[in-house]
Design goal:
Bound molecules: succinic acid, manganese (II) ion
CATH superfamily: Alpha-ketoglutarate-dependent dioxygenase AlkB-like
Strand content: 25-35%
CATH topology: Jelly Rolls
Shape: globular
Number of helices: 3
Oligomer: single chain
Length: 219
């Protein structure tokens, strides 16, 4: 989207940093084509089934560790039993660089090695309800990268799904990091704006979001 008024970087809460347009077009294209490959297998992109019997409106594929409500495993036992694809070194390095740009260079950012990526695809109607990322055994920050259509990302507090929260527009190439006092803040996606992405990224429609995380798990 050609933003007439560029969105400035912001810190909506302590430990939460939004850097708009952090990924250049080439990096976005590389991620889109890699995600297309990962979407085909060994574990295909699919709607995650919830214990309630419903399904999530986003479609997801994972790298490194497979997430399902509410745990991680190496194999996707709720899909086809296959081991998920490895998280490539270049993507972990993108996560490390993202953290350093959001927080500044420090021992924490130098040593950040995400071992899982949850890749979510949103069509025009997909949403994500307010939730905490709390199935990891590590409190290391979450790095979120968005490509394609813009959305409203609701970033809340650590106590409840309700107020106070901040609604942030996440556009293509945006980086959002939440760690420290914000690591377990509730967050969700309330709306996607169809047709706001740039086809030059390789995304003709919809929104792609990758979250890089440290699970703290070992085999
Ligand atoms: C997530 O909470 O896992 C995804 C957030 C997003 O799509 O921006
Ligand atoms: Mn989340």
């Amino acid at each position: 989207m050609d933003a007439l008024v560029p969105v400035p970087p912001s810190r909506p809460a302590p430990g939460a940093v939004h850097l708009p347009g952090w990924l250049g077009l080439e990096e976005q294209r590389r991620l889109v084509s890699a995600c297309r490959r990962w979407a085909t297998g060994p574990v295909p992109l699919r709607h995650t089934r919830l214990p309630s019997g419903g399904v999530m409106s986003v479609r997801t594929v994972c790298l490194g560790w497979h997430w399902r409500p509410y745990r991680y495993s190496r194999t996707a036992d709720d899909v086809n039993g296959h081991r998920v694809a490895a998280l490539p070194e270049w993507l972990a390095e993108t996560g490390r660089r993202a953290l350093a740009d959001a927080y500044g260079e420090s021992a924490e950012t130098r040593e950040y090695v995400p071992d899982t990526a949850l890749i979510n695809f949103y069509d025009a109607h997909a949403r994500m309800g307010m939730h905490q990322d709390k199935d990891e055994r590590s409190a290391a920050p979450v790095v979120s990268l968005s490509i394609g259509d813009s959305c409203v990302f609701r970033f809340g507090n650590t106590e409840s799904r309700g107020r106070p929260y901040t609604d942030i527009e996440l556009g293509s190439g945006d980086l959002f990091v939440f760690g420290g006092p914000s690591r377990f803040a509730y967050h969700g996606v309330t709306k996607v704006f169809p047709g706001t992405g740039d086809a030059a990224t390789g995304m003709a429609s919809g929104r792609l979001n990758l979250t890089l995380r440290v699970t703290g798990l070992t085999d």
